[in-house]
Amino acid sequence: MLPAQPPQFVPAQLQAIVEQMRPQQAAPQLDAARLQAVIEQIRMQREAQQNPLAEAFVGIVRVVAVGAAIGLGVAAIGSLFGNDDEARERARLQRARNRRLNGPRGRVNVVKTGICTCCGKRFRYTEVHHYAGRAVPRGREMCGRCHFYCGHNGNWKNYAINPKGCWLDSFK
Questions:
Q1: Residue 170 falls within a domain, yes or no?
Q2: Separation CA 83–CA 94 (nearest Å)
Q3: What is the pTM of this model?
């Protein structure tokens, strides 16, 4: 005979199935095979219900794994057929360029006359423009506006250039 109050650890689905199977009259005990079939049915129903978050995580892991495999394959093919000498030479030239542009500050031998070499106008204050980089002792005297707009293309973060003519004259 089943107890009147089912235990707390039995799931709600199992309770509902047991209630359906319980006859209205006093009946003999529920046999073990039938109870085992009910428990197996509940287990299969739970396995059928899948967690969408777990499915998304599995999908992300698969995408990352495929991407890593493709990346390793490309790297392996590149190392077999690539030319390392060209890459080394490019890196060497880039390092030399960076040393020249961002190296230790050197003095530029420019006699300041107060005349901008870009626009040709006379100014009370002029700046020396290191168009070849700070480590190279070449430069030219420029007014503040020409230094910013003509020498650096309007942004101080740009590399310095040696303009062929004044860009500000073209906007007048």
A1: yes
A2: 18
A3: 0.41
Q: How many domains would you assign to the chain?
A: 2
Distances (CA, A) of 48 to 14, 43, 86, 98: 16, 9, 57, 62
**Identity of residue 64:** V
Tell me the C-alpha distance between 152 and 159, whole Å. 6
Terminal Cα distance for the chain, rounded: 104
Distances 4 to 1, 8, 19 between C-alpha atoms, Å: 9, 12, 11
Q: Is residue 125 part of a domain?
A: yes
The label of the residue with tokens 């980089």 reads: 133
Is 67 part of a structural domain of the chain? no
Q: Which domain holds residue 130?
A: 105-172
Q: Cα(109)–Cα(132) distance, rounded to whole angstroms?
A: 13
Among candidate residues 154, 108, 101, the one with its CA nearest the CA of residue 129: 108
Rounded to whole angstroms, the Cα distance separating 90 from 96 reads 10
Question: Is residue 100 a part of any domain in this protein?
Answer: no
Kindly report, residue by residue over 102-137, the tens digit of the pLDDT: 666 667 778 889 999 988 899 999 888 888 776 677
Q: Are 25 and 1 in contact (CB under 8 A)?
A: no
